[in-house]
């Protein structure tokens, strides 16, 4: 509440008016005061010279009468001063200082004693004058004159009143002028300030301030308008590019979701329609084998079994492709998993489904990774099954899974002592349908490592391999720190 | 020992033959009713203007319902079966080529009793049909319907 009255909270208009008025008041006061002082001085000097002349004349007239000590004559001379209302007292002294004649307006008054000479000049409400009377260069007596100053005082009073009336009139005029003039300065500034506030609040960059004149305020207004123009232009560009970006994102999103829907439909179709004819080929192949065995020779039966085997292989390929497409389009559910436990489960399953077991499978306990459980299982199932498969020809088969952590990222290594591969083909390793072995050597779809790669990339990780022919292989899966929090 | 019948809903002629062959091998005495699309299956179950609801429904032990059918899909047939008090108890096995997780979820959500992905290897497919027939026709019990079922 008290803040409102502090100088820094005053509006510019009030400050300007206040400053103008303070300065003009001070000026008027100084002018009036000096005028009064000067007038007072001038009037006093004039009065003094008038009284000097008067006393001079009186002294001249009284000189002879004083010489002869003619009081009668002296009284007549000074009585002429009765006509002057302001003369309070006139005394004429001889050389001895005795009063020879006197004129008193007040009856009680007595002439001052010259033994203690009275103060002369302007004292209080009176002007006193003590003039020697001379005749031919000799002093024949003294003339004392005392005049009242009421006329002077009255005059000065009137003058002061006049001066202050004029001063006040001027001040009133100045107030009006100040109010008019401050607009010249404060209006452009308050327009600027309110425009700036409006822009700050509403972000409406189309606002411009009117510009008056070519002075600093005019230049400030121009600069302000130019600045806002630039901001408006940039803002428009930013908004346009944002809209463009949003449109692009929307387009891409709809393209992407269309592509996803097409992929879904394609997968659905593959799932149903591609498997059905295979089932028919396989089924009728077996039915033919069972029901018409007598009408086929051995070659025919061999062909038939080849047809059936190829059909089952193609079924495997379709299964692999579907898994690959599923890990690409499935939504991920990210949480922490005990990878060691998952690996142990996978090893159990591999033990159950295969006859030849590795000599030694070691899995480092307590490996924890963050990711999608189903996808991780698919990836590591493929990696372990590979280690299982490609080490199957060794006498002593060793599979080892270990993990190391650095800077929050986790690298899991799956090592086997199997046939390995030539490092010059390492780029082909993770590409779908690329195989480094013939079906006679090792069966496979060529989709397993492509699926592993897809899963790991969806976890923002990387998978790479080190190997040499006949010296086993080691596959590294690195999960980045950002996902492992 | 009662003899339940099986309703097979299958549109593909090849699959019809293979399924029937496998089921006959597995359960020679059972009645197998074949309907080649969803609408025909619905007409059989609920009747239509031309023919009333089938009396064979009373001895129905299980429906083997193909997922992908022309016109009325397998899921639609399942929904209709589950939304009618006369048939909502019927055991329905979805038999399909697919193993898409969302199809599995949808089928169970609509009240399928079982979901079987048909194997490409006919020996394995045959085995599947045998297991199905054995379970649903001899192990499993369904509620009594109509007068033909004894207490």
From TrEMBL, chain A:
<dbReference type="InterPro" id="IPR036097">
    <property type="entry name" value="HisK_dim/P_sf"/>
</dbReference>
<keyword id="KW-0812">Transmembrane</keyword>
<keyword id="KW-0067">ATP-binding</keyword>
<keyword id="KW-0597">Phosphoprotein</keyword>
<dbReference type="GO" id="GO:0005524">
    <property type="term" value="F:ATP binding"/>
</dbReference>
<keyword id="KW-0472">Membrane</keyword>
<dbReference type="InterPro" id="IPR003594">
    <property type="entry name" value="HATPase_dom"/>
</dbReference>
<keyword id="KW-0547">Nucleotide-binding</keyword>
<feature type="transmembrane region" description="Helical">
    <location>
        <begin position="158"/>
        <end position="179"/>
    </location>
</feature>
<keyword id="KW-0808">Transferase</keyword>
<dbReference type="InterPro" id="IPR005467">
    <property type="entry name" value="His_kinase_dom"/>
</dbReference>
<dbReference type="InterPro" id="IPR033417">
    <property type="entry name" value="CHASE8"/>
</dbReference>
<dbReference type="Pfam" id="PF02518">
    <property type="entry name" value="HATPase_c"/>
</dbReference>
<keyword id="KW-1133">Transmembrane helix</keyword>
<dbReference type="Pfam" id="PF00672">
    <property type="entry name" value="HAMP"/>
</dbReference>
<dbReference type="Pfam" id="PF00512">
    <property type="entry name" value="HisKA"/>
</dbReference>
<protein>
    <recommendedName>
        <fullName>histidine kinase</fullName>
        <ecNumber>2.7.13.3</ecNumber>
    </recommendedName>
</protein>
<dbReference type="InterPro" id="IPR050351">
    <property type="entry name" value="BphY/WalK/GraS-like"/>
</dbReference>
<dbReference type="InterPro" id="IPR003660">
    <property type="entry name" value="HAMP_dom"/>
</dbReference>
<feature type="transmembrane region" description="Helical">
    <location>
        <begin position="16"/>
        <end position="38"/>
    </location>
</feature>
<dbReference type="InterPro" id="IPR004358">
    <property type="entry name" value="Sig_transdc_His_kin-like_C"/>
</dbReference>
<dbReference type="Pfam" id="PF17152">
    <property type="entry name" value="CHASE8"/>
</dbReference>
Automatic annotation (TrEMBL), chain B:
<dbReference type="InterPro" id="IPR001789">
    <property type="entry name" value="Sig_transdc_resp-reg_receiver"/>
</dbReference>
<dbReference type="InterPro" id="IPR052893">
    <property type="entry name" value="TCS_response_regulator"/>
</dbReference>
<dbReference type="InterPro" id="IPR011006">
    <property type="entry name" value="CheY-like_superfamily"/>
</dbReference>
<feature type="modified residue" description="4-aspartylphosphate">
    <location>
        <position position="66"/>
    </location>
</feature>
<protein>
    <submittedName>
        <fullName>Response regulator</fullName>
    </submittedName>
</protein>
<dbReference type="Pfam" id="PF00072">
    <property type="entry name" value="Response_reg"/>
</dbReference>
<feature type="domain" description="Response regulatory">
    <location>
        <begin position="5"/>
        <end position="133"/>
    </location>
</feature>
<keyword id="KW-0597">Phosphoprotein</keyword>
